[in-house]
From TrEMBL:
PANTHER family listed in its UniProt record: GLYCEROL-3-PHOSPHATE ACYLTRANSFERASE 4, ISOFORM D-RELATED (PTHR23063:SF2), PHOSPHOLIPID ACYLTRANSFERASE (PTHR23063)
Name of the protein this chain belongs to: Phospholipid/glycerol acyltransferase domain-containing protein
Pathway: Lipid metabolism
GO-annotated molecular function: glycerol-3-phosphate O-acyltransferase activity
Length: 442
């Protein structure tokens, strides 16, 4: 043990505080900016404020109330005749009424996929209005949502459930099991309303994307990715449920000049053979992040509202301790002046449970390969870590190697080629396996 070891631990804690990428995903920008420019334009700003609150807001509120009255008067009639086409039109009409009440200017890029096979729409999540924006275009969606109270709870129980939407309580494990079965049943029938899922599981501030949970990618259905990007100079669509009720969020949007956003419909894709659900989810998230110009991170968004399970907390604590113990054991076996101080490295994907943030100066098993240098290095390292955590893939690979022990290298190459569509994916696959083998050799 050396003094530098303790300093390294202190540096690690300081880095975690100074480079807190997790909190940045949920920070809300100040919605009022006062500067010399706004002071000089004070009369114009005051005139705009009066117009927005005393002319735009009453008009938009009246429009939404009229649409709400029409919707709830027409809904029993539509349900009585059991006409699916009328019901879908009515849902789309109501979603469009919400958008008009916010002065929305939505630009849709590409054609919205109409797939006659089992499929799921997935999108990045900023607010509840994401669902309204997508359901107002061409055809509505069913969705999977956390149970809420207040206005959202009323709309969930009395409206959304009518089109096949599924509600659950995140804190109840039994709800999750039942939910997975209901999702499979809904997706298996292409005639049902297309299912829209937000795999992040929480609202993010539309500057980052966090971990896509793999549940939606395990249903043996095609994935239709959708990327949503809001222009915050007109209105900040991010809803932080801890600091703002949904009613205040709606009133805020109604008193802005406009809600401006871009929506990209990406090419539907099935899960390729040999690809795990975690890899598939990471691949879709990377594409959405790239199109919407969002920073791709691997943090688990559930940590925003729920602490990690005790088992995972213990594993995250024991991982660095075990790794540091290995460094000390190696130092005792081979004492050398150059090995006195272990180097500390903080993984950008600690949320994925990377158990090896400590490494000795000359242990290259945890170091990223040279080809990851560049503007996409963070994304590539995330891919390597996701591949490294895929236990199913490891089992398949080991079986393939054990079947042909005489030619391990050829089997490795054939296996990675089968799982990779391009050279970039093949490099990720090879790098993850090198790390996996080196960790176990040590």
């Amino acid at each position: 043990f050396a003094l530098q070891d303790g300093l390294a631990f202190m540096a690690y804690g300081a880095q975690a505080i100074a480079q807190d990428e997790f909190s940045k995903c949920f920070n809300q920008q100040p919605r009022r900016h006062f500067s010399l420019k706004t002071f000089m334009l004070g009369p114009i700003y005051c005139a705009g404020w009066v117009f927005r609150y005393f002319f735009l807001f009453p008009y938009r509120l009246s429009l939404l109330l009229a649409a709400t009255l029409f919707f709830f008067l027409a809904l029993p009639i539509v349900l009585y005749f059991k006409n699916d086409e009328w019901q879908r039109w009515l849902f789309r009409f109501y979603c469009q009424a919400f958008l008009r009440s916010w002065g929305s200017q939505i630009v849709y890029h590409g054609e919205k996929p109409r797939v006659d096979r089992p499929h799921i729409f997935v999108a990045n999540h900023t607010s509840v209005i994401d669902y309204l924006i997508l359901s107002a275009h061409e055809f509505p969606h069913a969705t999977v949502a956390q149970k809420h109270g207040g206005i959202i709870g009323f709309m969930e129980s009395s409206v959304l459930t009518l089109n096949g939407s599924l509600m659950f309580n995140r804190s109840e494990k039994n709800d999750r099991k039942v939910l997975a079965q209901k999702m499979r049943q809904h997706v298996s029938n292409p005639k049902n309303v297309p299912l829209l899922i937000f795999p992040e599981g929480t609202c993010v501030n539309n500057e980052y994307t966090v971990l896509f949970h793999k549940g939606a990618f395990e249903l043996d259905a095609e994935i239709c990715p959708v990327a949503i990007k809001y222009e915050k100079q007109w209105a900040d669509a991010y809803w932080h449920s801890k600091t703002q009720t949904f009613t205040k969020h709606l009133l805020y949007l109604m008193t802005r000049w406009a809600l401006v956003a871009d929506v990209w419909y990406l090419r539907p894709r099935p899960k390729r053979e040999g690809r795990s659900s975690a890899e598939f989810a990471n691949e879709v998230k990377a594409e959405i992040s790239d199109v919407a110009r969002l920073k791709n991170l691997s943090w688990d968004g559930y940590f925003k509202n729920f602490a990690p399970p005790k088992e995972k907390q213990k594993r995250l604590q024991e991982g660095p301790q075990t790794r540091y113990g290995e460094v000390l054991m190696n130092r005792m076996r081979n004492i050398s002046p150059r090995d006195r101080t272990p180097r500390l490295r903080r993984s950008s994907s600690f949320s994925n449970g990377d158990p090896h943030p400590f490494s000795s100066p000359y242990d290259e098993s945890d170091q990223p390969p040279d080809w990851t240098e560049g503007h996409q290095s963070t994304h590539v390292r995330n891919q390597i870590l996701v591949a490294l955590e895929d236990r199913t893939r490891r089992t398949d690979m080991l079986r393939a190697v054990s079947a042909r022990k005489a030619d391990v290298v050829a089997t490795w190459k054939r296996y990675t080629k089968m799982r990779s569509a391009d050279m970039q994916r093949r490099r990720v696959e090879n790098s993850s396996w090198r790390l996996w083998f080196k960790q176990r050799v040590q």
